[in-house]
Amino acid sequence: MGWWKGWGKPKDGEVATGAVEGDVSPWVAGAVRMGWEVRAADPEACTVSVSYTEPFAFPVFLGVVLRGAVAVKSPDWEYTATETFEEADESLRTTHGHFLLATSRTLLSVGDRHTATVPVPADDVVGGLFMSRTNRAWVRHAAGVLVLLDHDRPPHLFDLGFRDIPRDELPVHEYDLVVDGEPRLVRRPPATGEGGTPPV
Predict the structure, then answer these.
(1) Minimal CB count within 10 Å: which of 15, 76, 101, 144?
(2) Residues 177, 155, 102, CA angle at the centre, nearest 5°?
């Protein structure tokens, strides 16, 4: 163990993982052509290298997805257990998982290779967390791509705060990012308001 690779297009029989509904968007074909590599640097750290060969979705490297919670004290990395994205209807999608985010986000350029040292063991890293400038978000992992949000929303006036409904009052759809095996999203059932949840 200690390192694995996921370069190039999917081989015969491999498929990129789609969104929760199972859809695979055209831009995923670009996402799966991204290079992604994790290599052990020492028992407590690893290096992550990413690159891609074709322009798509203005990809930004946000950080990595982990197998579990970590305690990291670093000016370059910050742990969080949730990531929230805005849906097409201006509801919010909150994904619960284990994310180590880079404090400085990197916009990837075609043909360039970006390498970062991550202060966790290589075996703790499940995949890379990426987002486009148009609000799409995905996890690049060893077997392909898991879409977290497949919504192309260009910036608009309401981003400046002129909303009819404040952001903290928008409806929230919650998902768990499950990483036992190939990463997948599982939607949490909505709360009933009576202290329980309805059956799935």
Answers:
(1) 15
(2) 45
* pTM of this prediction exceeds 0.90: no
- Residues in a beta bridge with 95: 83, 175
Q: What is the CA radius of gyration of the chain?
A: 17
141 contact partners, CB below 8 Å, separation of at least 6 = 6, 36, 65, 126, 127, 128, 182, 183
Q: In the block, which residue shows the tokens 């409904």?
A: 165
Which residue do the tokens 């329980």 mark?
196
38 band by pLDDT with thresholds 50, 70 and 90? very high
Of the options 2.40.30, 2.60.40, 2.40.128, 2.40.50, the CATH number for the domain spanning 14-143: 2.60.40
Token look-up 């400046």 returns 160
Which 8-state DSSP code applies to residue 158? G
Ordered by start, the domain boundaries in the chain are 14-143
Task: Give the ranges where the chain is alpha helix by DSSP (H).
Answer: 27-31
Q: How many Å apart are CA 195 and CA 166, to the nearest integer?
A: 25
pLDDT tens sequence across 162-196: 555 566 677 888 999 999 988 999 999 886 654 44
